[in-house]
Write a structure and sequence with these properties.
six-stranded parallel beta sheet, 14 helices
């Protein structure tokens, strides 16, 4: 086995990237799922379609198919280790000094002040810093990962600009723009505190007050602990006629809604490590307006070129940007087309897999050689 990808579970956001690796490596690829997916995420449609390369950890140290997972991880040419907190899976490989590419979001989602914890620093040293001279590299799923890793002096010159790569859809010329509804705005997420659904309701109130002659409508997909509170806020602000609360929808239904929407809002704060909805909304030709602190934003969105970033916590800036787009449909269309092009040519699973395989070959981990994938530059938090 050439490459093994270890993670807590196999989900729809990883499917396209893993399919690409499986094809490029001519079947010498395995995804090892270490735990069952939570029921909540299953209900949300996160469980990916079955693939022949997926193996599941079984009691007793084996995987489906009877393979021993420890032997699988030790003999692979490259191991990608992401989304799994149990270091025991790679302990033996680390000791053997074999190549590992960690794949994760930022360390300090709560804030970099957490780096002062002595206990936390000791754990970060054990998991990361002590391997600074070993063949251990980091696939940074977010623009703020390099800065967090820099605090603990880990992975010098070994951090790679990366991310998550959900399905990239190919559209005929002019699509899906012919299906977009005039003045349509979409938000899709769990209704929890750090996703900030209240900002969407407040934006609706601002637009209703300031854009009396311009029609708009917001669809909010999702539910959660703040759902009742968000509904009450909409009633209080008098915008229930401007918002449709659609509840939970499957990933397929969310993509269909993106394809019919002109503007997509991402209101999460720094706790959003990446934010795969940015990939999906840009691929769907939406003009994305996103909080600048989510991981995907600074790498995928170039300000006013293929989307718009608003400063974290500045709701007035968010509201004004959305109002500008509603008042200028041509600009909204231009941003959507540029966003679609960005995903089609740069931020997609096939491109990511090809560049990663080229890197492994250049480094001598796999047979053959090709162009090198460039490491991520330091990014200020």
């Amino acid at each position: 086995m050439q490459v093994v990808f270890v993670s807590n579970y196999f989900n729809h956001h990883q499917l396209s990237f893993c399919d690409a690796l499986y094809e490029l490596l001519e079947g010498s690829f395995c995804f090892l799922q270490t735990q069952p997916m939570e029921e909540e995420r299953v209900k949300m449609g996160w469980q990916a379609e079955e693939r022949p390369y997926v193996r599941y950890v079984q009691p007793g140290g084996t995987t489906t198919g009877g393979l021993e997972w420890q032997n699988l991880l030790l003999t692979a040419d490259v191991v990608i280790f992401g989304g799994c907190d149990d270091e025991s899976y790679i302990r033996e490989r680390l000791a053997a000094g074999k190549p590992i590419f960690r794949y994760n979001e930022r360390l300090y989602k709560e804030g970099q002040w957490k780096a002062i914890s002595p206990r936390g620093l000791l754990q970060k040293y054990k998991d990361h810093t002590r391997y600074r001279k070993a063949p251990v590299y980091f696939l940074c799923a977010g623009a703020y990962v390099p800065c967090d890793l820099g605090i603990i002096h880990a992975y010098p010159e070994k951090m790679l600009r990366f991310g998550y790569f959900p399905e990239t859809r190919e559209y005929a010329p002019g699509e899906p723009f012919s299906r977009k509804k005039k003045g349509s705005i979409l938000w899709a997420a769990r209704m929890i505190d750090w996703k900030h659904p209240e900002l969407v309701v407040k934006t609706a109130a601002y637009l209703k007050e300031h854009l009396e002659e311009i029609p708009f409508h917001i669809t909010m997909i999702g539910g959660g602990e703040l759902e009742e509170e968000v509904h009450s806020l909409a009633e209080e602000l008098g915008v229930t006629d401007k918002i449709t609360f659609a509840g939970f929808r499957s990933p397929e239904e969310v993509r269909a809604a993106m394809e019919e929407s002109e503007i997509y809002l991402v209101t999460s704060d720094r706790k959003e490590g990446w934010g795969a909805v940015v990939n999906e909304a840009m691929n769907s030709g939406c003009a994305v307006v996103a909080d600048h602190m989510i991981g995907a934003a600074p790498w995928m969105i170039r300000q006013r070129e293929n989307g718009i970033l608003y400063h974290d916590g500045c709701e007035q800036q968010l509201q004004e940007y959305v109002a500008e787009l509603l008042q200028d449909p041509a600009e909204c269309r231009r941003l959507g087309e540029a966003a679609q092009q960005t995903v089609r040519t740069e931020w997609n699973a096939r491109t990511a897999a090809e560049r990663l395989v080229r890197l492994w070959r250049e480094m001598g981990f796999l047979g053959g050689a090709d162009d090198q994938c460039l490491p991520a530059p330091p990014v200020p938090a």
